[in-house]
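How a chain folds remains the central question behind the approach discussed here. No coordinates are needed to read the tokens, only the vocabulary itself. For completeness, the protein is quoted in full, as a sequence line and a line of structure tokens:
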Amino acid sequence: MARKTVLVCDSCGKEVGEAKGATLRVTYADARRGAKQADLCDERAGTMAGRPAAGRARWESGVGCGCRAPRRAGVCGYSRHFATLPAKLNEQGAFPIIGAYLRLAAQGERIAAFRADEYACRDLGTPESVAKAAEEMRGGRFAAL
């Protein structure tokens, strides 16, 4: 017996037809809360709160940046910047850096992606995690920069 995978509306449970429906994505202002998304049928999507948004921009491959093809990238938590960046930040206390990057980009600052695919990372937020990282470095798992 052949099986077929179908998309089902997360709101009402109805099957969503081919090339129909919508995905609603909620991204919290506090980045620590993450994001969530729901697949919706056309009927439920049309009743959701929100406002129309501009379509996605179309990029030509390699325009102005020398890259072969633009691609989506996630945020890994690493950022590399010039020593002048802290003076340009007016945010106070703990804040998500993405909002600051967007504000600076809107002001004309150059913000570029850093591909970190070949790097491994470890949280160093506690003395225990620092000790574990030191142990892993001694064992050759991570190379010191």
